[in-house]
Amino acid sequence: MKSLPREFYYSNTLQLAKNLLGMKIVRVSNDKILSGIISETEAYRASDDPASHAYKKMSNRNKPMFGEVGFAYVYFTYGMHFCFNVVGRSKNYKAGAVLIRSIIPVDGIDQMIKNRKINDLKNISNGPAKLTQALKISKEDNGVDLVNNSKLFITNGVTPEKITSSPRIGISVATEKKWNFKMIC
DNA sequence: GAGTAGATACTCT
DNA sequence: GAGTATCTACTCA
After folding, report:
1. Separation of A41 CA and C4 C1' (Å)
2. What domains lie within chain A, and their CATH numbers?
């Protein structure tokens, strides 16, 4: 199992959001492997995207979005939830990241059920905050490199049969941009 | 199955 | 001090 090369993330953020569909997130926790296929993503860009954290200027929080591609951007929201993003953009952009909204559990499902403290397999990782819980991703993982990393990385998974796009969820601006991508397999 | 309220703590103004 | 890229549990049907 090999993590995707850095070049993979040097891509238009919208294209990257689609390319990430079907890829596999691998998390190693306590010598146990947790993994899942990415089934839903959202693209967030820089000054051309009012819904993005990087729309205004760099701050301590959104710093990873401006940094090297292939790094993780984990942020905290609603007082109790983390969301997991992958930094990626073409070279002429200042910032950009892809929010992972949903994964399909593959390995370590037992462990994920323990992490989530629920028994319903369908609800184990079908939301941004759910998958971070299931994979034990927290602010500790903010700014880590996903390319040179044996504990948290992304690798090849399946090829999506079909990709659909729709407006992003839970935002109040730039809703005309259909930058939410779902995989149908 | 669909819709609503409440919890919660971090970040920026 | 206000807003937040959400989830769960509860209600009603």
Report:
1. 20
2. 6-184 (3.10.300.10)
